TrEMBL record, chain A:
It holds the Pfam family Globin. This is Globin domain-containing protein. One of its GO terms (cellular component) is blood microparticle. Residues 3-147 form the Globin domain. GO terms for molecular function: haptoglobin binding; heme binding; metal ion binding; organic acid binding; oxygen binding; oxygen carrier activity; peroxidase activity. Belongs to the globin family. InterPro entries: Globin, Globin-like_sf, Globin/Proto, Hemoglobin_b, Hemoglobin_oxygen_transport. The keyword Transmembrane helix does not apply. The lineage of its organism: Eukaryota, Metazoa, Chordata, Craniata, Vertebrata. Keywords: Heme, Iron, Metal-binding, Oxygen transport, Transport. PROSITE patterns: GLOBIN. One of its GO terms (biological process) is hydrogen peroxide catabolic process. It comes from Gasterosteus aculeatus aculeatus.
From TrEMBL, chain B:
One of its GO terms (molecular function) is organic acid binding. It holds the Pfam family Globin. InterPro entries: Globin, Globin-like_sf, Globin/Proto, Hemoglobin_a-typ, Hemoglobin_oxygen_transport. Residues 1-151 form the Globin domain. This is Hemoglobin alpha embryonic-4.
Length: 147, 151
């Protein structure tokens, strides 16, 4: 069981209440595909990912980015049961999508950077630590059903 | 390794950071801005990294933290001026890290990530995916060169 402090719970809810999923989701996924181009291997049927401009203008990437953020919201709404929340998604990513779980960390790093850029100074060291702890739990839960 | 466009992007970012410091007339801004903040971020998110500083006072805004952060940023900025010469520029630091400091190189990745977060906070939208990719690539190269003499 993960122990969350009051500060951590409040910080996570605050961040998610202030980000636009339709903006942050696509931005984070695009960034991941640009900064870590090998992650494009999982998006072969998304069409044109030829360069940064193509990635950032790709509607399928944008849609998937939003889907990911909506998925994260499920964890925000029930922070004490993240492992259970993602059990099915973990099986999906392992058995069907065959995604190397190291990639979850890459995407979570990109999401951190996008949120940092939006919040600026307000994204303090303590806020960052709380956000990264949350994402680490998500990443761990998503990797849990792999065998 | 790094394309010309990426090298230019990196040089531009570092010049921008250092020139802001000049404007405000204090190294203090640079030291208050990116790197000591990055060091503080690293200590907050990855407490294991504090173990390397047991001999220093690393509390918020301490003189040790500021001066140490400044040393790091100056080295990174120096390297950015001519990335093709990193091995030459970093030779003394390579020796220091290999034989004296012996910091586990996985920590360089943690620090690099915190530097990127600080840059994002500072630059907002200007920290584009391309700038992020170039900077991440540069910091990875920097870390790799730094660890070259370890074994």
């Amino acid at each position: 069981m993960v122990a969350w402090t009051e500060f951590e719970r409040a910080t996570i809810k605050d961040i998610f209440s202030k980000i636009d999923y339709d903006v942050v989701g696509p931005a984070a996924l695009c960034r991941c595909l640009v900064v870590y181009p090998w992650t494009q291997r999982y998006f072969g049927n998304f069409g044109n990912l030829y360069n940064a401009a193509a990635i950032m203008g790709n509607p399928l990437v944008a849609k998937h980015g939003t889907t990911i953020l909506n998925g994260l919201e499920r964890a925000v709404k029930d922070m004490d049961n993240i492992k259970t929340t993602y059990a099915e998604l973990s099986v999906l990513h392992s058995e069907k999508l065959h995604v190397d779980p190291d990639n979850f960390k890459l995407l979570s790093d990109c999401l951190t950077i996008v949120v940092a850029a939006q919040f600026g100074k307000a994204f303090t060291a303590e806020v960052q630590a709380a956000f990264q702890k949350f994402l680490a739990v998500v990443v761990s839960s998503l990797g849990r059903q792999y065998h | 390794m790094l394309s010309k466009k990426q090298k230019d992007l990196i040089a531009e970012i570092w010049e921008g950071l250092i020139s802001v410091a000049d404007d405000i007339g204090a190294d203090a801004l640079l030291s208050v801005s990116c790197v000591p903040r990055s060091v503080r971020r690293m200590f907050a998110s990855y407490p294991g990294t504090k173990t390397y500083f047991s001999h220093l006072d690393i509390s918020h805004r301490s003189a040790h933290l500021l001066s140490h952060g400044k040393k790091i940023v100056l080295a990174i900025a120096e390297g950015a001026k001519d990335i093709s010469q990193l091995t030459v520029t970093l030779a003394p630091l390579q020796t220091l890290h290999a034989y004296q400091l012996r910091i586990d190189p996985t920590n360089f990745k943690l620090f690099s990530h915190c530097m990127l977060v600080s840059l994002a906070c500072h630059m907002g939208e200007d920290f584009t995916p391309e700038a992020h990719a170039a900077m991440d690539k540069y910091l990875s190269a920097f870390a790799a060169v730094l660890a070259e003499k370890y074994r």
